Amino acid sequence: MSFDTPWILFLLPLAALPLLLERHHSRAYSWLQLLPSDPLSDLVGLLLKILAALALLFILLGMAGPHSAQQQVEKIGEGAQIALVIDRSASMDDPFSGTTNGRVGETKSAAASRLITQFINQRKNDMFGMVTFSNSAMYVMPLTQNREAILAAVQAAAGTALFQTNIGSGLTSGIALFDKVPDSGSRAIILLSDGAGRVSDDVQQKVRDWLDHMHITLYWIVLRQPGGLSIFDTNYKPPENAALPPEIELYEYFKTLKSPFHAYEAEDPKSLAMAIEDINSKEKKPIRYVEQIPGRDFSQHCFFLAAFMIALLLGVKYLEVRSWH
Amino acid sequence: MQQNPAQEFSYHIGWRSKGRHPGRHSSIQTGLGMEFRGHAPLIAYPDPRRIDLRQTLRDPTEQIHVRMFNQKSSIPVYVVCDLSGSMGFVGERSKLELAADICASAAYSAYRVNDPFGFIGFDDDIREDWLFTSTTKVHGAFELAERLRGYRPASRGARGLLDADQFLSRERALVFLISDFHMPAEALEKALSSLMRHHVVPVVLWDGAEYKKLPEFGITSVTDAETGARRTLFLRRGYRERIAEAFEARRTQLRNLFMRYDMPPFFVEERFKADDMTEYFYQFVAA
């Protein structure tokens, strides 16, 4: 319990005034000893004084503005905040080749969209945001719990693709979604892309800092052409005088992140589903977060009590004898 | 001067005055009176007007006998008035106004029968400024009664009553002791025993507003006029009845106490009627 204006508490002794001072309007009576003692009268007299004192006390307390201290309550929840950063480059319109589940010709983006929709439907408590990118990032949806909106956004992402891959811009925009959103304790970015682009040094630094600062886990799902270059291939040696392929370079960069990072490779809808399933299970960890409950203001209660006491006193005033000598 | 002229009452006393001043009361003083007292030789009581011829002739020793009579004498009359705080109670009427009425009435009545009248006021002490020396002049007494009418007593007790006998006459006097007798019984008893020498008429001033005409229902705060103590009263039917009972018990107590000292009390409530006082004196005179 603390007070807004504690110095008013120094005035609290004033509340004892009704106990110390006698009532001003009193009738002279010849000899009180002759009046038989009456416990009820004495009780009423005492109550009146106490009521008056309490009324003053509560007014003073109310003026001091009591409120309980803010409390921190630890809560355990499941809801994660997940930003979907989805590649919309032209290559995403290519179908997976060599699929096994009869969906021959399903484009990467359609498969991603279908599986992500499933993923979203499995996670009832999460907040989703979405950013797509190609040449530059496209802000689609802030972090929201509105499932209809996010599902519609995912559906839309399956449409015709655009141009090229600018992962750096997509990542920064995806990270920016978390800005000014209270941390739920479980934050993740699912970066879904085929191939990769180069990310400049300062963007790399920025992404690294931000991911670390905002406690965001990065999941990177690479949609790979079957038989194409694997980012997990450590033995790959680039041709002489050539730079590393951007995927491997990006993977190497992501491995230097201070925040958690997981990479998946998917070459068909099945492996994509497995990747997403893995993410789903990884992000299931219960989140432990501390909720701040603001202190409650009790001055209104004090004033209400004081008003109640004064009302009682007024009632007694109404009962007061007026017609006596 | 007086707005309503003082009412006269007549008072009779059952004892003999020792006073030499002629008055209306039977006396032990020999003198010009109608009450035969006995015979005396002319030598001893040289009043040839009263020679009793028959007694003289019947006396073989041939002494001349004179009839002796008791004269009627005056008695001193005092009003000893309580000026304590409780007498400031104003109910139907101010108690002190009532006391002033009685005082004026007693003074006038005494004046009519040529008795000297004196006044002694007391609260916790005898009040020097409220002493009125015994005199047969009535005017001063009326002025004093007027003064009394406007007096507002301080919050003081009534212990001065114990000293009142020192300010009364040496001879037996008729003392109207005006008070509400709101004082402890022990103190009153002590005071009464100090006044035994005199013929005391306790005039008990009570007011209906003190106990009978209380408000029906309500809460009020009352202050003791003498001690200043405060109490909150929650008046209701049961409590009002208990207050009235307490006053009735007090009345009985006072009556028993006064009767023990052979001083029948005279209760006055709200109005003083001189005829009632006359009646009061008549009831003790053998017909």
UniProtKB/TrEMBL annotation, chain A:
This is MxaC protein. The chain crosses the membrane at residues 44-65, 302-319. PANTHER family: LEUCINE ZIPPER PROTEIN 4 (PTHR22550:SF5), SPORE GERMINATION PROTEIN (PTHR22550). InterPro entries: UPF0353/GerABKA_families (IPR050768), VWF_A (IPR002035), vWFA_dom_sf (IPR036465). It comes from Novimethylophilus kurashikiensis. Residues 81-279 form the VWFA domain. Keywords: Cell membrane, Membrane, Transmembrane, Transmembrane helix. It comes from the Bacteria. The gene is mxaC. Signal peptide: none annotated.
From TrEMBL, chain B:
InterPro entries: DUF58 (IPR002881), vWFA_dom_sf (IPR036465). Residues 48-252 form the DUF58 domain. It holds the Pfam family DUF58. PANTHER family: BLL2464 PROTEIN. This is DUF58 domain-containing protein.
